[in-house]
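Here is this case:
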Amino acid sequence: MAVKIRLTRLGDKKSPFYRVVAADSRCARDGKYIENLGTYNPLKQPFEINLKEERVKYWLSTGAQPTETAKELLVKANILKAVPYVAPKPKQMPPAPKQKEEVTESTEETTVTAE
């Protein structure tokens, strides 16, 4: 079973409120989850993050993978260290094979005469 740390949406229309949960990756976004790890309220200024740090660290140690948004929240809550983005090296095309140039010298000379 692949476990993900992700957000599940709560709240009314146009007023989102999120729970940070550990869930099976095959379950729906707002579906069944294994454990509630905290909350995230983006509407408060500044935004509010409440997490159970010990439980988050436990799930990370057992191999749970956070989603991109959950990873950003964990970095902001100082649970994960920010990993700098390293751009992948561009793939280079292999060099074209060199073709042997065949130089053929013709021994016959062609002359054109006007008649």
Summary: Strands lie at 3-10, 17-24, 35-41, 48-51, 65-66. The first helix runs from residue 53 to 61.
